[in-house]
């Protein structure tokens, strides 16, 4: 698959059959938006809403349910959800979206769901997409940290062994008894076996008489 095909791959996260869109007044100087200020007379459109995952970007599309014609789209780039989607202060079913026309211009509109569970699913879909993007980012960072350095990514570090003697420790060397050699090596020169006085071994076949027992 080519890079262009990967970029245009889309996955639908949520479909809501009907939502309402409202024209909203400018943001107040303090605080956030309140849907009670524009619900009565500022409705400008109603139709289908789809939440689409396009790689790392999420799109909220408002479309005609019959023709599929796009009315408006809200683009959520990674880490910028709060700048694109904002909850109102006085209801859990209404939001303010930042929409774009694809030519650099943007505006803010009000979005309303008829059911509370639809608004809940909308929030869940956006959160799931954020988690997906984070997981993919963590995988990429882990892959670069493991394989990107070649052999450096597989270095095993072991603690150094201290071979120095501690205070009071000694070394014991077991040396097997050997016949003294005429060599002048370091061992023969440094270690000389002690001379022991031993009786000569008896000759083969010859027995020395034993002294008679005492009377």
Automatic annotation (TrEMBL):
<feature type="region of interest" description="Disordered">
    <location>
        <begin position="175"/>
        <end position="215"/>
    </location>
</feature>
<feature type="compositionally biased region" description="Pro residues">
    <location>
        <begin position="199"/>
        <end position="215"/>
    </location>
</feature>
<dbReference type="Pfam" id="PF07933">
    <property type="entry name" value="DUF1681"/>
</dbReference>
<protein>
    <recommendedName>
        <fullName>NECAP PHear domain-containing protein</fullName>
    </recommendedName>
</protein>
<dbReference type="InterPro" id="IPR012466">
    <property type="entry name" value="NECAP_PHear"/>
</dbReference>
<dbReference type="InterPro" id="IPR011993">
    <property type="entry name" value="PH-like_dom_sf"/>
</dbReference>
<feature type="domain" description="NECAP PHear">
    <location>
        <begin position="9"/>
        <end position="176"/>
    </location>
</feature>
<dbReference type="GO" id="GO:0006897">
    <property type="term" value="P:endocytosis"/>
</dbReference>
<feature type="region of interest" description="Disordered">
    <location>
        <begin position="136"/>
        <end position="155"/>
    </location>
</feature>
<dbReference type="GO" id="GO:0030125">
    <property type="term" value="C:clathrin vesicle coat"/>
</dbReference>
<feature type="compositionally biased region" description="Polar residues">
    <location>
        <begin position="176"/>
        <end position="185"/>
    </location>
</feature>
